[in-house]
Design brief:
Number of strands: 10
Number of helices: 13
Oligomer: single chain
Distance between the termini: 26 Å
Strand content: 5-15%
CATH superfamily of the largest domain: Winged helix-like DNA-binding domain superfamily/Winged helix DNA-binding domain
Number of domains: 4
Strand order of the largest sheet: 3-2-1-4
CATH class of the largest domain: Mainly Alpha
Shape: flat
Radius of gyration: 21 Å
CATH topology of the largest domain: Arc Repressor Mutant, subunit A
Helix content: 40-55%
Length: 295
């Protein structure tokens, strides 16, 4: 299928209206054509921006009829309290600090629903506290019933698979979500993540190195990563020298610098690499644990 034909079908693919016989052909093209893959990400990002811009908070009479619940959670480990919005199905929004008005405004804009006081189920409370205190959550219980696209679910569903104490790049997330060309769309989705901490977007960093930005500020992101065991200063130092991967001279395996296997490499056996091509040319193969790039 030619690029022009694919581009005319992207929106139908995104909304699920494309016939099943054409979906596979279009997906195959997007996975191999960098330009069309980026365009697909742009279309989805634009759709989300338009949706956010046009969504209005309904009148109070409507919100009272259809509402979810909220509770303010205090952690002994943190100075800022955490607002948590939830439904019977799971967590829907998390806000660090701020006020109830901030939470209800953001919730109404995203979900077109109101909020009423409630008591967070104990299982959800444990997940929120574990995330806030840096322990992480392997299988977060979330309510994806409305307000999210399939692409968002695919992307956000990847994040809990990033181990505590490790980071991955936006490119890695796009590849793991099955959308290797949609790196820009991944960045947009992570910026709109309604359940940060529990869905650990703070573990995603730029391919160029360092820690990057965060919805709650770069200082909080660095603090979260430190508490999870990430050496953020080491990441900064590698970024300054352009090092993206670290290999072992003895095993010929290359990893992300924070990978658990990379941490076991002795200093005299560490081999720095600026990109995947350099590592492959030297005869190194990607780590099966962190999967830094496709061989």
């Amino acid at each position: 299928m030619r690029c022009k034909s694919v581009l005319t079908r992207i929106d139908a693919l995104r909304t699920g209206e494309l016939p099943s016989g054409e979906q596979e052909v279009v997906h195959d093209h997007l996975n191999t054509c960098r330009s069309c893959g980026a365009s697909a990400g742009d279309v989805d990002g634009l759709a989300q921006s338009v949706k956010a811009a046009l969504t209005l908070v309904p009148p109070r009479s409507c919100r009272d009829a259809v509402s979810d619940s909220y509770e303010l959670i205090h952690s002994p480990e943190q100075t800022d309290d955490t607002w948590v919005a939830f439904s019977d199905a799971g967590l829907k929004m998390i806000l660090r600090g701020g006020s109830l008005d901030d939470l209800t405004a953001a919730y109404g804009k995203r979900y077109c629903r109101g909020l009423q006081p409630g008591t967070l189920p104990e299982a959800l409370r444990k997940q929120v506290l574990a995330a806030v205190e840096g322990a992480g959550v392997d299988k977060p219980r979330l309510d994806w019933a409305d307000g999210t696209t399939q692409l968002e679910r695919d992307v956000l569903g990847v994040l809990p698979r990033i181990p505590r104490g490790e980071v991955r790049t936006y490119e890695w997330v796009a590849r793991q979500a099955g959308r290797p060309r949609a790196v820009r769309a991944v960045g947009t989705i992570l910026a709109r993540n309604a359940v940060p901490l529990v869905v650990p977007c703070h573990r995603v960093v730029p391919a160029s190195g360092g820690t990057g930005n965060y919805a709650f500020g770069s200082a909080m992101k660095r603090d979260l990563l430190r508490r999870e065991g990430v050496d953020v200063e080491a990441l900064d130092a590698l970024a300054k020298t352009g090092v993206r991967y670290v290999g072992s001279r003895t095993t010929k395996i290359v990893c992300f610098p924070t990978c658990r296997d990379a941490k076991r490499i002795r200093e005299e056996n560490r081999v720095p690499f600026r990109d995947a091509d350099q590592a492959l040319e030297k005869g190194f193969r990607p780590c099966l644990h962190c999967q830094p790039f496709a061989a």
